[in-house]
Amino acid sequence: MGGVVKAIVGVVAIVAGVILENPYLVDIGISLLLNAAASLFIKADHRAPLSGISVNYTGTLEPRRIIYGTLKIGGLNVIPP
User: Fold this and answer.
1) How far apart (Å, rounded) are the C-alpha atoms in residues 64 and 51?
2) Is 59 within the bounds of a domain?
């Protein structure tokens, strides 16, 4: 959902919670409003790493790595950090 839609749904949830005297609905509305406000200021960086950076990984649960696109990868870290 976009930030504006979250804010509108949050306001509607707060009003409905007050009318129906449902504190859980009010809490959901407040949560949606705060989430919409935070999304205005906090922007995550979704870009891929630079091509010169090697991405290493640690773990034994992944049988193989599936990479979509182009990415310079390193190997498995044998000793966990």
Assistant:
1) 21
2) no
Q: What is the DSSP letter of 60?
A: S
Strands 55-57 and 73-76: what pairing?
parallel
- Do 73 and 67 form a contact (C-beta atoms < 8 A)? yes
Q: Judging by beta carbons within 10 Å of its beta carbon (0-12, 13-18, 19+), is residue 9 exposed, middle or buried? A: middle
pTM above 0.70, yes or no: no
DSSP letter for 13, please. H
What is the domain count for the chain? Answer: 1
Q: What is the pLDDT of residues 3-16, one digit of tens each?
A: 788 889 999 999 99
The answer to whether residue 27 sits within a structural domain is: yes
* Cβ partners under 8 Å of residue 53, min gap 6: 72
Q: Which domain holds residue 10?
A: 3-41
